[in-house]
Structures are given as C-alpha cells and as structure tokens.
Amino acid sequence: MNLKGLVAVSGKPGLYKIIGQNKSGFVLESLDEQKAKLIVNLTTAKLASLEDITVFGDDDDIKLATIFENMKSSASIPDPKADGTTLRKYFREVAPNHDEERVYASDMKKIITWFSLIKDLPLFTENPEGEAEAAQSEAAVEPEPTAVEEAKPVKKAAKKTKKAE
C-alpha cells in the first residue's frame, strides 16, 4: 500500500493528494469525485501525511498502513456513523493492540472514513517506494562475469620542447 503524497488537512473534511508546491504552501487535489483543487498555506493549516500517522498502541504505536492492510482483509467494515461500541469491537479486530483509553471513537470514525475513500484507488494496491526498490533489488540477478579485456597500453603524451630564443 502506497500512502505517499496523501494528506489530511486540519479543518477540512476528506483526504487530499499533493500535486504541487508553491512558495507559500501546497497545491492539493481532493480524492473524492469532485477532484477539487485547493491551495493550502502552511502558516494557517496543518497537513498530516497518512504514511506518518500512527495510532496509540499498548506496547508500540501502530502504523496507519498496517491498520488499512488489516481492514482490507476484513470481512465487513462498519459504517463510520455507527455507535462507539460497534466501532470499538471492529477496531479490536483490525488493531488488536490499540490503546482503548487513548484511541477515541472519533479517531476510529476518521480512519474508517479515510479507508472508504482510498480503498478503490490504484495506489492502495501499490507497494511503497522503499519496498518496491527492495523487491526489485532482490529479484535482480547478477550478470555472469565476462572475459576481462586485456589492458591496453597507455599512450604517453609527446613532450613539448621550448624553443630557445
């Protein structure tokens, strides 16, 4: 799953893809059907990259990508507007070690809404760039050694002599 370039903007619903940058901020495109363009000023809005978001866990924080992977393999996803107990029961399945005291129902609703926005996008099935490069390097076969060419003698530069005047 490749979440690179996807961001959530504080105060704005939905998710956005970064399509450019200008001197005062970023140019974003919404991931919904409208594909609305938005220019975000970095001094007034906060951007949260989906690949950097984690959820509080009992031992370690849980990456959002891991939760999305578990949600992808889940049989049914509850409605984001469901009650808190239904959401908590579902989250115990997809994020079994989440900290139930610090992960609120509003957080779970937001994650389920984000998942419903990006689950049909092609980038949802892509590998992140780092994993893709690692897979390519593992799959690469080293070429067989070829016969080594003999070293050619290096030509010496002709010395220039100065004419005596």
UniProtKB/TrEMBL annotation:
InterPro entries: BVU_3817-like_C_sf, BVU_3817_N_sf, DUF5606, DUF6852. Residues 3-50 form the DUF5606 domain. Gene3D superfamilies: 1.10.10.1650, 2.30.30.730. Pfam families: DUF5606, DUF6852. Residues 128-165 are annotated as: Disordered. Residues 154-165 have a biased composition (Basic residues). Residues 53-117 form the DUF6852 domain. It comes from the Bacteria. Residues 133-148 have a biased composition (Low complexity). This is DUF5606 domain-containing protein. The lineage of its organism: Bacteria, Pseudomonadati, Bacteroidota, Sphingobacteriia, Sphingobacteriales.
